[in-house]
Automatic annotation (TrEMBL):
Gene that specifies this protein: manZ_3
Organism: Escherichia coli
Membrane topology according to the record: Multi-pass membrane protein
One matching Pfam family: EIID-AGA
Subcellular location: Cell membrane
Major localization class: membrane
Name of the protein: PTS system, mannose-specific IID component
Length: 251
């Protein structure tokens, strides 16, 4: 039997489709329908008969949920398993879905803090620091850097998963993902700390707001009966807990 192979153009098509994975998000199968949509190029390449294509599509219409930016390895591994099955390997539906379930949890565990907790805040802070000074490059910088890293993770992850196949499961064992997450978190905190110290405009805004509150309290707390107990630490006054009068009034 002639060997059926997934081509590079199929991988590119699957990669492009994976960027639309959340378009069909629902609370029954989360990204399940989107993942099935991602697999269509591979299924068409591997299964010429319509009934085999229908069976393969149904196989992937199950619950699937992981961080979209790191779903590439799962797509790649699944495509490799489908290719092996189409060429006669004894791989059943349970094995394919079991590998998907086994990968989506650990990848979500590293993807959420890496993408949403580190990459996005860092790029947003970089963009905001420029935007606050009136530089149009601020939002553009955020958009391009965030998406460049996100797309690179997805594309190279897909290639890695397809090349490694089920062996990627053992590569992700041990403390590799945990070390990656911790390293990314430390880097993110370091960069955010540097950015915060450089943002003098934030310091001036906070200082100005605090001083305005103090002036307002000094001006109004004697005349407004109901505002006496409010924010004494801002007004700089000490209130007696028993009768609500200030120490200044008693003197």
């Amino acid at each position: 039997m002639e060997q059926r192979k997934i081509t590079r153009s199929d991988l590119v098509s699957m990669f492009l489709r994976s960027n639309l994975q959340q378009a069909s998000f629902n609370f029954e199968r989360i990204h399940g329908l989107g993942f099935c949509y991602d697999m269509i190029p591979a299924i068409k390449r591997l299964y010429p008969l319509k009934e085999d294509q229908v069976a393969a599509l149904r196989r992937h219409l199950v619950f699937f949920n992981t961080t979209p930016a790191v779903c590439g390895p799962v797509i790649g591994v699944t495509a490799a398993m489908e290719e092996a099955r189409a060429n006669g390997a004894e791989i059943d539906d349970g094995t394919i879905n079991g590998i998907k379930v086994g990968l989506m949890g650990p990848l979500a565990g590293v993807g959420d803090p890496l993408v949403w907790g580190t990459l996005r805040p860092i790029t947003a802070a970089l963009g905001a620091s420029l935007a606050l000074s009136g530089n149009i490059l601020g939002p553009l910088l955020f958009f391009f850097i965030f998406n460049a890293v996100r797309l690179a993770m997805k594309w190279y992850g897909l290639q890695l998963g397809f090349r490694k196949g089920v062996n990627i499961v053992s590569d992700m064992g041990g403390n590799l993902l945990q070390k990656l997450t911790e390293g990314a978190s430390i880097l993110g905190l370091f960069v955010m700390g540097v950015l915060v110290t450089k943002m003098d405009i934030v310091k001036r805004a906070v200082s100005g707001f605090t001083n305005a509150c103090r002036r307002w309290c000094h001006r109004h707390y004697d005349r407004t009966e109901h505002s006496r107990p409010a924010l004494p630490w801002i007004a700089g006054a000490r209130f007696d807990a028993a009768d609500g009068t200030s120490a200044q009034q008693k003197n």
